[in-house]
Specification:
The complex is a heterodimer. In chain A, helix 4 (119-130) packs across helix 5 (135-148) and helix 4 runs parallel beside helix 6. Chain A has an eight-stranded mixed β-sheet, sandwiched between helices. Chain A is 31% helix and 23% strand. By secondary structure, chain A is α/β, with parallel strands linked by helices. Chain A has helices spanning 3-7, 56-63, 91-97, 119-130, 135-148, 165-177, 195-212, 223-229, 247-252, 257-265, 329-334; strands at residues 12-25, 28-41, 45-49, 72-81, 84-85, 102-105, 183-187, 215-220, 232-237, 240-246, 313-315, 321-323. The radius of gyration of chain A is 21 Å and the shape is globular. Chain B has two domains: 10-91 and 172-325, 3-Layer(aba) Sandwich (Rossmann fold); 105-170, no CATH class. Chain B has an eight-stranded mixed β-sheet, sandwiched between helices. In chain B, strands 2-1-4-5 form a four-stranded antiparallel β-sheet. In chain B, strand 4 and strand 5 (75-76) form a beta hairpin. Chain B is globular and about 70 Å long. The chains are: A alpha/beta, B alpha/beta. The A-B interface holds A 51-52, 164-167, 194-200, 202-203, 221-228, 247-248, 251-252, 261-270, 272, 275-280, 282-283 and B 47-48, 155-157, 185-191, 193-194, 197, 212, 214-216, 218-220, 238-239, 242, 252-253, 255-262, 264, 268, 270-271, 274.
């Protein structure tokens, strides 16, 4: 199945192949990523969905080569950004890439801004680093960026504490977009915000994405946000993609029991009487992952083989695959194996 | 002869909680009234800073109300002395949002759960107390082997179960649940919500469920109140509120929920701006600066909280006019 990636290599903004990342701590080795595979097509948005500890943020940090080392080690695998091998770059080259080719928005806008710098200085800092322009010009551009994210440019000389949570997240987005990167990694960008503010920020991100044709990796746990903003979805469990496909594949042709479990855990607005069907048990400890399929202890459809062998990829279409022992290539197409 | 109305378990009348700040009085809860029937759940939704948590704490008198009364089974608990209130608290409990900071890190699970029993001198015999602790742990789905572990050894879901067990240890009648599942992953969130619902059915508990998550509150509540800058702006039975929202803020709030479904697209109402300051609010509709239906009178006077259909209350001039027209 390797042929597909070679033929359209130019179409991929980001390609991660078999990435393995470990955190080696005194308490043991934490297996954060165990053969992570994702592809973000140029101009498209991929949603990376999973729960706490699934390895979503580590994936984002790996692309920027910001995995804290020690204790983090990128053991093996490939990360290609616009066809270029990120893992072969020197630190100096990486500094030219971060912010210019790829930017990351972090979850918590309260802690990702510098409290003792004005917001325009923080935006200008990125611009000055990547472009040879004067301080004045960079401040002017910083103010334009503020306007772009819906903040009056005149507020540029204020400090982060003078802004509300939603405004701070807009500033963070302005910093990330200041040098028009081709790939934006957004790590739970609206989780800390209220719903009405979340709606505003998502709308703005959609508009900016259209305007700049930015490719996006959207890290989230919220399937509602995925439905709204993503083109493709990868469901992550214990550091691996367990199901991947287009929005329609994942939402309407769900195959993996974990994906089903995520949907069943959500309260349904249309039908308030049905009881929630949570996934039993807890996320496995990443320093002590179960043998075979890591989801088997929580799976309602578990087979004898599940605790012995790791499942292989099975394709329904050339875009939609899952890693689960329940399926043969025939039943993968037909579906009706799980309840959803 | 008319049948006497059953006494509501809890009733709040014109409850107010103001905080003194350097810039003036902060109206956190501003003239809120409601009743909750025995065995029912009142959901309170609103965005950060709308006063929902302050209200929860004021009802338990963890914060003293600035004005207004709270009645519990017909008794005015706001008139109680400290020692009377102390005794009453075993009937009225609270579950906090953050299972990471609401537990004492130096107490084991069983110590944390037995503490309220000890303090209230409910069970003085140590062995009997341990029996009760284990019974409550079983009730909330905590394995017996966890009795001697410390909170840091446990995950968020289990910690929240300790919080629930602590609240249940005293066999309370009423529990204020302040964002009990917000800090948890979706699969764990569903486990805890199911647990709380089962407990309500088996123990006949009454809940006040405070949250910012509209899909959770819909799933959980019999009645829902929407709060904005310290006031209730709409209150209705859960189904009615979701099917027939009237206040422009409620409508915007409902439309802002991202739906995990590809075939159910709602027309989104985007609100401009953000919540205004709760310090010395003007006597006008508090939502007026962000409202897309704002009229002249909204900026100069405040609409009353009126019943537009049975059990459905709204505070908006548009709705009031409609109700008058009949």
């Amino acid at each position: 199945m390797d042929t597909s990636s070679d033929s359209n290599v130019s179409n991929l903004a980001l390609e991660i192949n078999d990435l393995v990342v470990e955190y080696r701590t005194y308490e043991g080795v934490v297996h954060a990523l165990n053969g992570m595979n994702i592809q973000v097509e140029t101009g498209k948005t991929l949603g990376l969905v999973g729960e706490t500890g699934a390895g979503k943020t580590t994936t984002g940090l790996s692309v920027l080569r910001l995995v804290p080392d020690p204790p983090g080690i990128i053991l093996c695998g490939k990360i290609k950004l616009n066809g270029e091998d990120i893992l072969a770059k020197t630190e100096k080259e990486m500094q030219k890439i971060r912010g210019k080719v790829v930017s990351m928005i972090f979850q918590d806008p309260m802690t990702s801004l510098n409290p003792v710098m004005t917001v325009e200085e923080q935006i200008a800092e990125v611009i000055e680093h990547h472009e040879s322009i004067t301080k004045e010009q960079s401040i002017k551009k910083a103010r334009e960026m503020l306007e772009l994210v819906g903040i009056a440019g005149t507020r540029g000389n204020e400090y982060p504490h003078q802004f509300s949570g939603g405004m701070k997240q807009r500033v963070v987005i302005a910093i990330a977009l200041a040098c028009s990167p081709s790939l934006l990694i957004a790590d739970e960008p609206t989780t800390a915000l209220d719903v009405t503010i979340q709606a505003q920020v998502l709308e703005m991100m959609k508009n900016l994405r259209e305007k700049y044709k930015t490719s996006m990796l959207m890290i989230t746990h919220d399937l509602g946000i995925v439905a709204e903003i993503c083109d493709m979805v990868s469901i992550v469990y214990a550091g691996r993609v367990v199901e991947h496909g287009t929005l329609e594949d994942i939402f309407d042709n769900t195959r993996h029991p974990y994906t089903e479990g995520l949907f069943n855990s959500l309260p349904n607005l249309a039908d308030r009487k049905t009881k929630l069907k949570p996934i039993k048990g807890l996320m496995p400890d990443p320093s002590n992952l179960p043998a075979g399929c890591p989801f088997h202890p929580r799976c309602g459809y578990v087979l004898d083989i599940c605790n012995k062998e790791k499942p292989q990829k099975i394709y329904r279409t050339d875009k939609h695959y899952t890693e689960c022992h329940l399926y043969s290539s025939k039943s993968m197409v037909e579906g009706k194996v799980i309840g959803r | 002869m008319s049948k006497p109305q059953p006494l509501p378990l809890i009733e709040a009348k014109n409850l107010k909680k103001y905080f003194k700040t350097k810039r003036g009085m902060l109206h956190a809860v501003d003239d809120v009234s409601f009743t909750i029937e025995r065995g029912k759940t009142l959901g309170i939704v609103g965005e950060s800073g709308c006063g929902k948590s302050t209200m929860g704490r004021t009802i338990l008198r963890l914060l003293e109300p600035t004005a207004g009364q709270v009645y519990f089974e017909g008794e005015e608990i706001t008139a109680f002395s400290q020692s009377q209130m102390y005794k009453k608290r075993k009937d009225i409990q609270i579950i906090f949002q953050d299972p990471f900071s609401s537990l004492n890190p130096r107490k084991t699970v069983s110590e944390a759960i037995s503490e309220p029993l000890k303090i209230n001198k409910i069970i003085t015999n140590k062995e009997k107390r341990m029996e009760k602790v284990l019974a409550v742990m079983d009730l909330v789905g905590l394995a017996e082997r966890l009795a001697n572990t410390y909170p840091h050894e446990l995950d968020g879901g289990r910690r929240q179960r300790i919080g629930i067990a602590r609240a249940l240890a005293l066999d309370p009648k009423f529990i204020v649940c302040d964002e009990p599942v917000s800090a948890l992953d979706v699969s764990i969130q569903a486990q805890i919500l199911n647990l709380m619902k089962e407990l309500q059915e088996t123990l006949g508990l009454t809940y006040m469920f405070i949250t910012h998550d509209l899909s959770v509150v819909n799933h959980f509540s019999d009645e829902i109140a929407v709060m904005y800058l310290g006031r209730f702006i709409e209150k209705a039975p859960a189904e009615e509120l979701f099917e027939n929202p009237i206040h422009p803020y409620t409508k915007a709030l409902l439309s802002a929920i991202p739906m995990p479904n590809l075939h159910h697209k709602m027309q989104r109402i985007l609100l401009s701006g953000e919540v205004a300051s709760p310090i010395e609010p003007p006597s006008a509709c508090r939502f007026a600066p962000r409202c897309n239906m704002c009229m002249e009178k909204c900026k100069v006077s405040e609409p009353a909280f009126v019943e537009v259909s049975p059990g459905h209350y709204v505070s908006c001039f548009l709705a009031n006019d409609k109700a008058r027209e009949g």
